[in-house]
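Students often ask why inverse folding is considered easier than folding. One informal answer: many sequences map to the same fold, so there is more than one right answer. In these notes we will look at a single instance of the problem. The structure comes first.
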């Protein structure tokens, strides 16, 4: 071959080499949390480690309204989440807004006197497309830059926690809420990646949850009947044919999770956790103390993990349903309300489980918890803004935790650089080095091809088949390819670690010991937050009471509308409102006032019988007895007491208790 021919062949090889290397490297990174519940089966299991060290606030962002949407994380580390302000947000890892797009106007609901816009968690496809449904009554498909690709009509209702899931072939599955007077349009859709309908399975009562997808393509969804509050679990084949139905006493708010043997786990509003075989027969059921909105987490240790409205976070055996342990979050905490159900929806978030066995979940008060799989508390983070959590956490590749709160704040929690232990630093380094084997193989292939190209070019040069100029051109070409590959690895593959942190000095991690079958163990240090703010009410037994007074209010009169700024979440401790909604006309005549307090038996040895009156004193000075309360508290346990009073708008007063009696008991 001539010199020009050799130059052409080698140039083509260099171009092909560059293109294939770039394409392969760019496709090796998978999104760390692409879907609600991490994957199509909703296992909630992350392939990355979090580390046992206590997490601190890295950054926060204030949206214009509450965040119930649960975040997802793209392959490049971008975090996506929706807000009830109608905006859909994309955040960079340092907390800066990459972009935000207005998808809908909030929809007002007079029942709860609040406005909502985006409840669903988004879903990220393999090509980077983001899917999200909103109060616009559409499923939106967005490009990674925030521009819209297409939209598909999906009826929305703020009682329905439906959202998208994505099958292995790219099919999008999403349920539509019930259509008033058009029941034939309610059901489950399968949508092609180009936005066209693949199939539709009608369900007159509407689909209330995010579908789950089994390994064999079976789609698991849930329906809600608004007339009798009944629910059911529905199994469909991958082409939309109904396989079976499983009837429930009440409807579903949380999606199902699918175990390794295809057992379906779900909780319902009646308070049961169900295990259902793949043929639709019941395997077992477990009764909690109240309803369930959370999605179960599938552990590789043979357990499932789930929180209940009763304030307990449970570990249950996957095969038998037997309780392994539970962790109670209620006692000694400053409770906040969730949508007018004071003390009844304590835990509604799902719990990611990290590779190193850390469970992360939050309550509707103001606290995020980290437990290990034995039920031991590792750390907790109290929300500085005093708002509760309905947004389930997502875990990034570097262990950063993302979630939003009811006050409209979005948070990133992680370990600040100063607080990292030698062990955690080692784990982080291992994670950075633990790249997919394809990158290692490709790197070796690149090195070999570079050496072969250089040696071949030099050999032809020595045989006078290549000129010195051509040899230098080839060498510079190889160098350019090496630089391109290096840039791809540095900028697109290696995880970015420069998160925005403040310069404050981190404090040593504080470990809090808890019982595996913890009923309501409280803080024991005399300088704890609870002790400092509680009042001892007995000399014989160390019983303490902490009043939180008014923890919320909502419009209860005929004049509820949409033009007046009205407070629906009131932080009595800070004496300020932390959530406003528009109401009209501006003549609301009555409010529901929500009161709360906790009673804790701090004594290490004695049990106590406690009785008291729960009151509301209106502004005119009249004390109204709401109810009498009696409870028995074992040592180191307690309870949260809530009551509601309807007060006229011009006669709002204060919550309180009276006539308390404490006696030692043998119970």
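Output (designed amino acids):
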């Amino acid at each position: 071959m001539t010199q020009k021919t050799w130059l052409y062949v080698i140039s083509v090889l260099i171009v092909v080499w560059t293109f294939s290397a770039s394409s392969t490297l760019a496709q090796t990174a998978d999104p760390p949390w692409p879907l609600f519940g991490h994957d199509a089966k909703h296992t909630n299991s992350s392939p990355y480690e979090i580390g046992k060290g206590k997490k601190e606030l890295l950054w926060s962002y204030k949206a214009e309204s509450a965040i119930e949407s649960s975040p997802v994380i793209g392959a490049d580390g971008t975090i996506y989440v929706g807000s009830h302000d109608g905006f859909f947000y994309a955040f960079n890892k340092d907390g800066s807004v990459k972009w935000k797009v207005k998808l809908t106007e909030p929809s007002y609901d007079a029942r709860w006197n609040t406005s909502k816009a985006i409840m669903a968690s988004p879903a990220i496809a393999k090509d980077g497309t983001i899917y999200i449904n909103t109060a616009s009554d559409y499923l939106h498909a967005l490009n990674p830059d925030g521009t819209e690709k297409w939209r598909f009509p999906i009826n929305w209702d703020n009682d329905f926690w439906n959202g998208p899931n994505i099958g292995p072939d790219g099919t999008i599955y999403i349920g539509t809420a019930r259509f008033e007077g058009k029941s034939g349009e309610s059901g489950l859709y399968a949508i092609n990646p180009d936005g066209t309908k693949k199939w539709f399975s009608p369900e007159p009562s509407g689909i209330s949850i995010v579908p789950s997808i089994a390994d064999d393509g079976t789609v698991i969804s849930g329906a809600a009947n608004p007339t009798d509050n009944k629910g059911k679990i529905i199994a469909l084949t991958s082409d939309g044919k109904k396989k079976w139905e499983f009837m429930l006493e009440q409807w579903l708010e949380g999606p199902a999770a699918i175990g390794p043997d295809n057992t379906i786990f779900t909780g319902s509003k009646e308070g049961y956790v169900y295990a259902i075989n793949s043929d639709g027969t019941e395997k077992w059921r477990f009764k909690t103390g109240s309803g369930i909105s959370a999605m179960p987490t599938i552990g590789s240790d043979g357990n499932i993990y789930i929180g209940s409205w009763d304030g307990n976070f449970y570990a249950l055996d996957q095969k038998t349903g037997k309780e392994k342990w539970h962790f109670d979050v209620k006692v000694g905490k400053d409770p906040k309300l969730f949508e007018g159900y004071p003390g009844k929806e304590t835990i509604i978030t799902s719990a990611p489980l990290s590779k190193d066995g850390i469970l992360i979940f939050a309550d509707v008060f103001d606290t995020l918890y980290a437990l290990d799989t034995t039920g031991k508390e590792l750390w907790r983070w109290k929300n500085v803004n005093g708002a509760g959590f309905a947004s389930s956490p997502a875990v990034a590749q570097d262990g950063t935790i993302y979630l939003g709160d009811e006050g409209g704040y979005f948070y990133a929690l992680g370990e600040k650089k100063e607080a990292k232990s030698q062990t955690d630093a080692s784990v982080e380094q291992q994670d950075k080095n633990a790249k997919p084997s394809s990158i290692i193989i490709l790197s070796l292939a690149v090195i070999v091809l570079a050496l072969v190209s250089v040696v071949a070019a030099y050999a032809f040069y020595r045989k006078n088949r290549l000129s010195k100029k051509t040899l230098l051109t080839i060498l510079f070409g190889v160098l350019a390819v090496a630089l391109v590959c290096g840039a791809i690895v540095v900028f697109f593959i290696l995880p970015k670690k420069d998160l925005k942190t403040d310069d404050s000095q981190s404090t040593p991690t504080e470990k809090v010991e808890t019982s595996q079958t913890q009923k309501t163990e409280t803080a024991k240090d005399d300088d704890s937050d609870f002790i400092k703010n509680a009042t001892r009410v007995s000399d014989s037994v160390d019983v303490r009471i902490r009043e939180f007074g008014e923890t919320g209010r909502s419009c209860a009169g005929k004049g509820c509308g949409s033009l007046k700024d009205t407070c629906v979440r009131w932080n009595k401790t800070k004496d300020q409102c932390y959530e406003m909604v528009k109401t009209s006309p501006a003549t609301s005549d009555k409010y529901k006032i929500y009161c709360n307090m906790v009673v804790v038996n701090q004594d290490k040895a004695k049990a106590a019988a406690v009785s008291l009156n729960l009151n509301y004193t209106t502004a005119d000075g009249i004390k109204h007895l709401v109810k009498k309360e009696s409870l028995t508290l074992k040592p180191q346990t307690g309870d949260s007491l809530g009551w509601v009073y309807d007060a006229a708008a011009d006669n709002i007063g204060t919550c309180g208790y009276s006539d308390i009696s404490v006696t030692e008991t043998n119970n």
